[in-house]
Amino acid sequence: MASHAAAIAASNPPRRFSWWLPYAAVLGMEWRQTWRSWMFRVAMLLVAVLAIGYVLHRAAIYHQAGILQSATVTLAEVLQAGLLLGPTLMVILSAGTIASERGTLADSVLSRGISRYAYFFGKWHGRLAALLAGYFLTAGMALLLACVLLRREDLSLVGTLWALLLEASVLAAVISIGVFFSTTSPGTAMAMLLTWVVIHGLAALLWISGLTLLNPQGLWRWLPFLLRGQYDAVVVAQAIGWAWLVAMGAALIGLVHFSRCDV
Amino acid sequence: MADDVVPVVETQHLTKIYQNRRIALNDVTLRLETGAVLGLVGPNGAGKTTLLRLLLGLHRPTAGWVKVFGQYMTPNAAALRRRMGYIPSHPQFPRGLTPIAYLDYMGRLFGLSRQERKPRLAALLRAVDLLEVSGEPIAGFSHGMMVRLALAASLINDPELLIWDEPTHGLDPEARRSMLELIKNLSQAKTLIVSSHNLSDVDEVCTQVAVLSEGHLIYSGSLQDLRGKMRGRQFEIELDGDQKAVAKVLQTVRGLGEVKQAQLRQKRLEIVLNETGLSSTALASIFMTISDNKVDVLSVRSAGQPTEQAFLQLVEQEESRGFARAWSYREAA
After folding, report:
1. Which domain holds residue A25?
2. Chain B residue closest to A20 (CA)?
3. A186 near B CB under 8 A
4. Is the dihedral of CA A85, A88, A89, A94 positive or negative?
5. Chain A touched by B152 (CB under 8 Å)
6. Contact at 8 Å (CB) between B146 and B69?
7. Which of A42, A191, B101, B207 has CA 20 to 30 A from A73's CA?
8. Residues in A touching B77 (Cβ below 8 Å)
9. Could you report the per-residue pLDDT of B36-71, keeping only the tens digit for each?
10. Does any domain span residue A221?
């Protein structure tokens, strides 16, 4: 073993480094690890069962009792439930992004030829992509099922896309805040607690302040109208923009902190 | 002239204090030249791993600095880390990966193209005897296999500087022997820093040694100097001759001014020399006495386990200095 390994180590092959490869490697690994995580799978299964189960329940009412069921109303209720439960789930699933690997796995990665920036962006983007893909997958299944089984005359396709995008943007902000606390906290539980407190504190503040954009009460009321296509595209785009601004702000602060801290 | 050569590793007044609660490293100044094999030794909690983590940029110094290849090491100095290979003391691997997938991941972290990393990872897996299990999940591997995989990962980028934190820890004798042989072979082309609890390992493979005690660097230099400095003063002389003559030798040797302590165990004369004076002069007097009594010498050897004895003495001395350290610190300042 010794002579073989030494010979290979001494072979000095020509080296060309691709700067984007380390980022892509972390991103790919984060995506894969998130989808492999039992917590993520359980969460996905739970959400899918609840969303699809609710749509099937409404469809059963129509089939058994003959009472007409609107896809718009049902989907609005599903998305409203997502607005209520989604942030808590995202807090649980995002707070361990970096905190869970501190001092162990992070060592094995950060001791290689990767900068803290590349690592952070890889982790953040990987987790964001995996969790939002999970969201779109479950929401998409519920939407598809509702369109097939329920009355969909008043359902606007463009409006539905806006609604999904808006809710995904809010969840992206939550995930980014979770990743931020994941860089600053010594452990996953602490990161989870801090994220949960900040998210709900922010939501309460927005609610009390009465601001239109990103006000949880406002978003709750908008959803049915969005699904019917009754919305002001500029206002919705602004809300989405603000959500992404919060997401990027949280990530930026996390990045600055992570690039200077001990791991 | 020697000062013009850029050292591979250089630290100056390197200090690490964790959250104003624990001093892990205290004013460590170190210089490591190309091709050296540095053994980093010290008791548990001496700051060995902290020093290695600072060298890798995983931690930031509270004071002082670290230069690797002549440039300051920072958390974002990826270009410097591309020239380094690291084995942590307890290697961890992402879940569900096979050795091939893991080494491929490591290669990508170093920015190596597919054409470079694929043949290299295959050759390394073969070299560390993991070819047969290269498609199996790492989770089921033994400790020895995990260390071998970590070893392969540390070589995937063909590094110039290798930092291995307790590489022989938990290995069976055969694997340990292979690891030491590997270090010897690698030392012909690379610079190595090996942290170890096992002083006989350090004795065997290292050209330099740095001794840490409670975060303080109490010795840095060649192993030979350490042994000479700490113990050229204990000897064992195996004698052959009449028992009466041997006893007489003991009596005479005890009377010599250079001899601090002498005792006889069967026909083995154990001698401790005084701190002052040349040991060669003292030994000449002792051999003269032996010769005068018509006693023959079967063997002569320096007493005890060389490096281990020196290390223990060094740490003991450091601990016994007590508050005297404060005075020497003031003088040094």
Report:
1. 19-260
2. B111
3. no
4. positive
5. yes
6. no
7. A42
8. 115
9. 999 999 888 889 999 999 999 999 999 999 999 999
10. yes
